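Dear Dr. H.,

I hope your travels went smoothly. While you were away I took the liberty of generating a structure for the chain from your last submission, since the lab meeting agenda had it listed for discussion. I wanted you to have the full record in hand beforehand rather than looking at slides cold. The sequence, exactly as received, is reproduced here:
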Amino acid sequence: MAERVNRGLPVARLLMVVSSLAPLFLLWAIRGAPPVPDCYWIGGCLAFAVLPTAALIGRWRVAASRNDRRTVVVVTARDHSDHLLVYLFTMLLPLYTANLANARELLAVAAAFVFIVFLFWHMNLHYMNLGFAVLGYRVYTVDMAGVDGARGLSVILLSKRINPPDGGTQIDGLRLSDTVYVERDSAHAH
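The corresponding predicted structure, in token form, is as follows:
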């Protein structure tokens, strides 16, 4: 029987989703939107690009100071580097190329953006984070061992490992949310 998931820390999950869209906000800041004065548009885009990741790093520090961790026992692990192409061609490029020249088009893009954020959150697709990538972290989906070693909960693991961890590996995970963990001391993992 699969372990019951408490997705907890919904704000952390929302921040993961919004921070995954940082490249789009940076591109929009450069591109501009004629209906909105540059001082507001650029400032808003930069805030959406930087603040969610900064808040996640703050959550990371709180988790570390509270020793909020869990041992993740790996059944299987998958690398999702291939999702980068899906991300680029299904989300980033269409939203970037959208017409922002008038208020109505801008509202349509904003509605599409809200829909994408909802889908990313609902489908747990919040692992494309530019800030974590710059820090050298890779993202793996890990099926954890549940009751009697059977497959249980699937979680996201941020790790500096070059390859996904093998089945049976025990990982000391710092909890950002109930479904997102950062491997402690993963810089030394191989």
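Two observations you may find useful: Residues 38-65 form the longest helix (28 residues). Confidence is low (pLDDT under 50) at residues 1-8.

With kind regards,
E. W.
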